[in-house]
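agent> fetching stored inputs for the S-adenosylmethionine docking request
agent> found them:
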Amino acid sequence: MDLALYAEGLGFYTAGRSRFGPGGDFYTASHVHPLFAATIARHLEGVRRSLGSARPFSIVELGPGDGALAEGIVRSLAGAATSGGPIEYVLVDRSEPLGLRARDRVERAGRAAGIRVRSRPDAGGEGPFSGAVLANELLDAQPARRLRWTGAGWAELGVRWDGSRLVAAESRTVRPVGGGPLPPGETDGLVVEVSPSAEAFVREVADHLVRGVLLILDYGMEESELRRAHPAGTLAAVRSHRTVSDPLDRPGETDLSTFVNFTRVRAAARSAGWTEVAFDRQAEALGRWGYPELLSEAIRRTRSPEEEVRLRLGSKNLLFGFDRFRALELVPASAGPPRDGVTHEGRGAGR
Ligand SMILES: C[S@@+](CC[C@H](N)C(=O)[O-])C[C@H]1O[C@@H](n2cnc3c(N)ncnc32)[C@H](O)[C@@H]1O
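agent> prediction call returned; pasting tokens
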């Protein structure tokens, strides 16, 4: 999965083709409606106010892809940047071609908004900083381990080259899984996915973010829900907006992803010292961050009934089309209890 997505010059994200939007392979919420970025921007502005003296306020986006979300956030923060002190937006993408393209796009928006835009190959180079780290649909795009319950124990699923093509393989030698042993399967053949790379992000960001917030938005569930709802696992292969039945077919041209195993990611966050502020459905998080007010304002600004209908339909898609998405909001434990109006302590936590 790592090679198929990220092999230099060959992977799905690294071969230089655009994968986003109608002419690509998939959409994210960032492409569905500008209110998605506007709502996140409003929340980030609240975080900035709560940090008070943190100057400049850094927003580090991990995995910005084509930069659609970053552009929307930068545009939405234009007023805030002039009135509330400097803001900088840092794009961190593992894919060099995507990172360069996103930087051009977001830099243009940054110049108009008075926000400095930078890009980096990894978050580690930022050193200790205050601000916000944002990851939308980053964790599902990380290589995952797939484990299958055999009735007597767990086996690890993998891939083998049989001399002419890639074929599925299975090993009975299973390395330990981060966050504690997997409970035995409820049924033979049950597949559970875990992603050490996804878990590593929360540890890496914990090393650098001193004050502020880490927002993770992605499709995924608790492990117990995944076991119930997806006993065959969630590995999905997609090309040109269509599901492909064989994930080993045309590696590098096919998007591969798995649902985020939030039980393991949250356990990694706890052991890395994060305090969990909220873990809830993305639609609920957007609601808390000001989506209804922004929607009402946008509706008031429409100039025709048709424009209003289009806006309402887009809004419906954003809230209900992303039903399996969760929002995980973390603050560094050393930052102390979150301030009022910013981090919503306790809401949704532990659901
Ligand atoms: C599904 S896209 C996310 C799209 C984008 N966040 C949005 O809202 O439209 C996943 C992105 O994460 C990037 N990525 C994957 N692993 C990464 C890593 N370790 N560090 C930074 N970016 C990474 C990929 O190159 C790709 O651009």
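agent> quick read of the result: Residues 2-335 form a domain with the Rossmann fold fold (CATH 3.40.50.12710).
agent> awaiting further instructions
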